Amino acid sequence: MSTKQTLSAVVVTAALLGPLFAVAAWAQLQVYPAKGQSPQQQQQDRFECHQWAVQQSGFDPTMGAPAAAAPTTGAVGGAARGAALGAVGGAIGGNAGRGAAIGAGTGALFGTMRRNSQIREAQQGSNAQIDAYNRALGACLTGRGYTVF
């Protein structure tokens, strides 16, 4: 497998699996009924606190991972722009074909780097929403007499 194929596989895997791990983060919250609340009371409190946390954070873990904006560019777009710029530069230097090839390679590299950066930024935004939900849920449950960890 080439380096380019390996890089593509890693990016696709991260894009597909990242939201799954992010959604699982909210499920890790442990709640203990510190004041002897009944199971029915726990269920009611958990539901009401969930609704409040969704309002506060804008994230509902029952709806899946927050939608992330699709990356706006990638290797193909970068390669096309790089080839165009390289052809112009190559034409000035007397070899448009060589300039286009160099530009395409450079553009693809920078396009891939930009796409990876956009994916990381989108994931960080998702994690921030999950953290906000967890904090709100924990605050609500703590206020109702539960120990949250």
Structure described in brief:
The chain has helices at 3-26, 39-57, 75-93, 96-143, and strands at 31-33, 146-148. The chain has 149 residues and is mainly alpha-helical. A two-stranded antiparallel ribbon has the order 1-2.
Description:
By secondary structure, the chain is mainly alpha-helical. Helices cover 74% and strands 4% of the residues. The chain has a two-stranded antiparallel ribbon with strand order 1-2. Residues 5-26 have low confidence and may be disordered.
Provide key terms for this protein.
149 residues; 4 helices; 74% helix; mainly alpha; 2 strands
Topology summary:
Elements: H1 3-26, E1 31-33, H2 39-57, H3 75-93, H4 96-143, E2 146-148
Antiparallel strand pairs: 1-2
General shape: rod-shaped
The beta-strand count equals: 2
The tally of helices reads 4
Overall radius of gyration: 24 Å
The biggest sheet amounts to: 2 strands, antiparallel
Q: Percent of residues in helical segments?
A: over 70%
- Mean pLDDT over all positions: 72
Instruction: Report the span from N to C terminus.
Output: 44 Å
Residue share in β-strands: under 5%
Provide the low-confidence segments as ranges. 5-26
* Element string (H = helix, E = strand): HEHHHE
Q: Which class do the helix and strand fractions yield?
A: mainly alpha
Give, in spatial order, the strands making up the sheet with the most strands. Answer: 1-2
